[in-house]
Amino acid sequence: MLDNHAKIMQFFSVAQEVTGRKKMQKMIYILQKSGVPFEEKYNFHFYGPYSEELTLRIEELCNLGFLNEVKEDKSNYYQYNYTITDDGMRFLQQFSLDMPDYREKVDKLKMKSSRFLELVATMFFFDDLPIEETVEKVHTVKPKQKYSEEEINEAIQFIYQMKQ
Amino acid sequence: MVNQPKTNIKCAEQILTRKMFKEWMGKMTYKNEQLSEEKVFKDPVHRYVHVRDRVIWDLIATPEFQRLRRIKQLGTTNLTFHGAEHSRFNHSLGVYEIVRRIINMFEDRPHWNKEERLLSLCAALLHDLGHGPFSHSFEKVFKLDHEQFTQRIIVGDTTINQILEKVSPGFSQKVADVIGKTYKDKLVVSLISSQIDADRMDYLIRDAYFTGVSYGHFDMERIMRVMRPIDDQVVIKSTGMHAVEDYIMSRYQMYWQVYFHPVTRSAEVILTKILHRAKELFEDGNYTFKLEPVHFISFFNGDVKLDEYLKLDESIVQYYFQLWQDEDDEILRDLSERFINRRLFKYVEFNPNLQMKEWMKLYKLFQYAGIDPEYYLVVDSSSDLPYDFYRPGEEGERLPIHLLMPDGSLKELSRHSDIVEAISGKKRTDHKLYFPKDRIEELEDKQLVKQIKQILYGQGEVENVR
Prior knowledge:
heterodimer; A: alpha+beta; three-stranded antiparallel beta sheet; two-stranded antiparallel ribbon; 5 strands; B: Hypothetical protein af1432; 3 domains; four-stranded mixed beta sheet; globular; YwgA family protein (chain A)
């Protein structure tokens, strides 16, 4: 029961705080693609892989009082930050989840900007293509982001590390 | 027919044999070929669906598209609203028709690229091609993704693919990219998938029509008239805001009244558990099915080939459920019988935070009573449903609906409309606990029955008011 909810809660217990919904979306996706068994279904949206299911699940966890959501006014947009609550910790303790240890990966992800994670997630999304085509595809779907060659190389390195 | 200079044609005729020439002409013009007269499909929602392009006509005739007739749009909803028997075929034609009408209106507007017409129509028609029977439950249990199958059907070895490649080499991939939302022209993508797109507009109106509910209607013609293409999305002229408010209301109403209807969800819960049970029995290895579940084996093994996927339609699934009523396994037999005869689970509202302890007690009591809680005590959440309603979201998360203001600026819908703001601020999540009330009441240990019911219903009776 509610195993997928518990997995997300466990992510927050590892990550402590996540700043921004976009960053959270990309973090879960990258972890999923790196072999952590999250089951949220992702589609490609304007800003890269995005899961409506995850959005709704997070909303459920907030409404249940398991996650704390803080809305920050960033003048031209809002940013939502998340932390786990005491009720959330108690909920999580009821479960014995069979999840790998991915703390190191989360630490690496947290240090990166959401722009960079968007790039990494997008590259993961097209990972069935040969690398040159993946890069080409990134430029096709995200012409406005204008990712530099340097960033792309960094992303390739990062993906390699995440898959370890 | 394409307007070719006459001399060129003559010249070509001299070089090529007549037969080769005919073939060449066919290829060159296939993408522009028009039927000698317009064909129409009678449709209860759009009155008529109009087809003039040969390509569209040929796509509709393929086995892969005809298969959609055998898959219901709303899965188990017909157990609640008996009219809801319409198929994915109906809906796919509807989305095609809406996109066709929008394109007609966009034709001379800036930002719209006329060359993308056929691509948009094909993508609209084929966007749901990969749906299987009771798609969502199958996806959850067997870890599949219908959108991936849509891609595979379009670019794989299928009749659909042959037709698309006849338009031009690489065209099938373009269609797949539009449906997958990774195509370069975002305007084309947003016709089929955005917060106000042809897909949603068709299913909301169609589902309202076939379920017979009286909410969920909105003025689609009006919305089409106020749609404006800009470089990477479709926006709404601000004077059309009220028509869009109706659309948002429709999404809200249909969500709670139809898509998340607890009786439909109950049937969905049972369906999911049937699939789980069959899979478990198969994996167990010691169980022998009376009839070998041939059509399911690749699903159980988690490696589904395209042709196997296409073979499994709703009638096949129903056939197995029918037969599984006579299986030796008590759980599979009982769940199948429940599904076929609509003996569904009952439900209570459930709060996983406040009622976690109660749930654990129930779990143990069910085990004690010999009713396997893994199959008979099920929590269903709003996030288990593939529908949503409008929310503006965070910057950079996903694209909201924008109004085009008289001064040319864009404004997010909920910041301008009080109605939309009110709806999008509402709590939209819900959890319910499903269980077979009849089984509990049949238990001989009346003390146990009382104990279970006490937890389920507390002091009062079932509370199903939202």
